[in-house]
Design goal:
Immunoglobulin-like, 4-stranded antiparallel β-sheet, 143 residues, 4-stranded mixed β-sheet, 2 domains, alpha+beta, 1 helix
């Protein structure tokens, strides 16, 4: 017996209670941590031309709006034709007052299907990337 009158020599820890406690604690940590980590990545919210759209004439540029600020030095956008040739003007850039817009200029493109590849590095160094297509049905007027 100890000073308070308790017999601790026969004290046993129930492994099931310990396991449940650890699982509960891990779940709480995950619930708190996951929403914060999802906010660290910059994901596209809109594009022009839109994903999968068919347009009548060549757009002057491809623009993608993101939900977070981008790191300009490492965020890129490129456009390829079906022959896998790069067709954009090679001037991919981050714009917008809040640094959430990625765009690249296009020459006057012929009718056909084009694939846009983008890679975005958010300010807190998380990378997201993806691609989408758009189709041009006719040739635009000379610019």
């Amino acid at each position: 017996m100890d000073a308070v009158g308790s017999d601790r020599a026969n004290f046993k820890v129930n492994p099931l209670i310990v396991f449940r406690s650890v699982v509960l604690l891990a779940s709480l940590v995950a619930i708190v941590a996951l929403p914060a980590s999802s906010e660290e990545h910059a994901f596209p919210v809109h594009s022009e031309p839109r994903v999968g759209w068919t347009v009548a004439s060549s757009p002057p540029k491809v623009t993608i709006w993101f939900d977070g600020e981008l790191e300009p030095a490492f965020s890129t956008i490129t456009v390829y034709n079906l022959a896998k040739q790069q067709v954009d003007k090679g001037n991919s850039r981050v714009t917008g007052s809040d640094g959430t817009v990625l765009e690249v200029d296009l020459p006057n493109l012929a009718a056909g299907r084009y694939r846009v590849f983008w890679k975005a590095l958010s300010k807190d160094t998380h990378i997201t990337e993806g691609d989408f297509t758009f189709t041009i049905t006719g040739r635009s007027s000379e610019r």
